[in-house]
Amino acid sequence: SQQGEEDPQALSIQEGENATMNCSYKTSINNLQWYRQNSGRGLVHLILIRSNEREKHSGRLRVTLDTSKKSSSLLITASRAADTASYFCATDLNAGGTSYGKLTFGQGTILTVHP
Amino acid sequence: DSGVTQTPKHLITATGQRVTLRCSPRSGDLSVYWYQQSLDQGLQFLIQYYNGEERAKGNILERFSAQQFPDLHSELNLSSLELGDSALYFCASSFRDYRGEKLFFGSGTQLSVL
User: Fold this and answer.
1) CA dihedral sign of residues B14, B74, A93, A44
2) Fewer CB near the terminus (10 Å): N or C of chain A?
3) Which carries the bigger pLDDT value, residue B65 or residue A94?
4) Which of B1, B49, B51, B103 to probe by mutation at the A interface, max A CB count within 10 Å?
5) Chain B within 8 Å of A99 (Cβ-Cβ)?
6) CA torsion angle for A90, B1, A86, A75 (degrees, to 10)?
């Protein structure tokens, strides 16, 4: 089963609205990352939040992490049509304090922002 | 532009054939990762190389193999291809600092097995 599972699978909103995507994971992590993928293109790193952090901001992006619930959320404020893409969370697993060095990706949330 | 180069962009071949996918990482990056993306399986980690040596292995089939050369470019070899191998194959290189390791993805190779 997937380490990271995003919710919802698909989200459709109007320009200017906020978009919130959630990610749940199963095991202890070093950090959690969010990536964006435009249709058929490579993934692009958006933001990284470490396991000892609760919130990170980057421009219109806000990421929260709740390690007690093993969940994270990505908020995109004032969305634009150009934000239309798939968004993936990825977990960097913690194995006895040493990172495996490979990221495990969830299935992604497909975000559609209508002009 | 991520700085990671993958060739070819598209590949169409027949079942039973063998293909090679090529990846050049960002300048200075020592790690190369290979991922397979399909509609039913999502993004699956295949294998990672670090400075020429295999570092981690994921859901890579025995029919698939990879290597990383002294100049750090990597090749993914897929043999005895089956229809189900049709997918988008990504290569990524990584940058690690005190916060963690971030991946930079190439634009992928779309493999179609007919």
Assistant:
1) negative
2) N
3) B65
4) B103
5) yes
6) 70
The stretch A13-33 carries a mean pLDDT of 94
Chain B, nearest residue to A100 by Cα = B56
Tokens at A33, concatenated:
């990352």
Mean pLDDT of A86-113: 79
Q: What percent of chain B has pLDDT over 70?
A: 100
Residues A5, A107 contacting (CB under 8 angstroms): yes
> 3-class SS at A82?
helix
What gap in Å lies between CA A2 and CA A107, rounded to an integer?
Answer: 8
Concatenated DSSP letters for A50-72?
ETT-SEEEETTEEEEEETTTTEE
Residue whose token pair is 């399986």: B41
